[in-house]
Amino acid sequence: MTDHRWRARWTAGAALAPAAAAVFAATVTWAAGHPPKPAAAPVDGSQATATDPAALQRTLDAEAARVAALQARVTALRAQAAALGRGTAAGAGSAAAASGSGRTGSAGSASSAAPSTRRAASRPPAVHAVTGGS
User: In the chain, what are the domain boundaries?
Assistant: First the structure.
């Protein structure tokens, strides 16, 4: 009625516990003797030094232009989403053209997607056979 596996596990645990404690002590000792490295400066050059006001102004102007371009893109995408919500193909094409993304297929793909949304809107939603949910 004695479990022989228990004795094997206990013996293995008794042998491994001091080894684990020794490894932990060695790593703590090594970490105490080696201070961490200082934080590295950004490599991408996006942050100018505070001592050069001209470089700081150039960086500020570049980032402001980037933010303005992103805001214009968000506005165009919102207009395109609103046109798609209304289901108008002409509105979706004009919103894609107004975005100025420079992609040649964006207006064509928006107008070709409109008929499929109309067909999907005319069909009733699919119903799950087991749960009955849509």
Answer: 52-95
